[in-house]
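In full, the data:

***
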Amino acid sequence: MSEHDNASIRHDSDPVALDGDGHLEHFDDWSPAVANWLAEREGRELSDDHWEILYLLRDFYTRFDMAPAMRALVKATRQQLGEKKGSSIYLMRLFPDSPARVAARLAGLPRPTNCL
């Protein structure tokens, strides 16, 4: 299945809908089990370092009502997790291709503005 296919899964007997880019249609449908399912369908395995960023993103979205683009993601990560983790290189290692977009998708957020 391509990451861009519309799909739905069942989690706790409730359908979880995805948009055409593979992002959850509803923020509240997210759970760790859903994140793992999304990661598996992309061939990813989530480590503790991934989870740290996913929870950071969910907190960011709750506070600012937006998914951060790369620059804002790096800044938020640096502020909350320190210099070592708050770099684009670190985030690229965790989420190759497009860290802001991939991490937002796995965190159950909409596509960040200004992400290709």
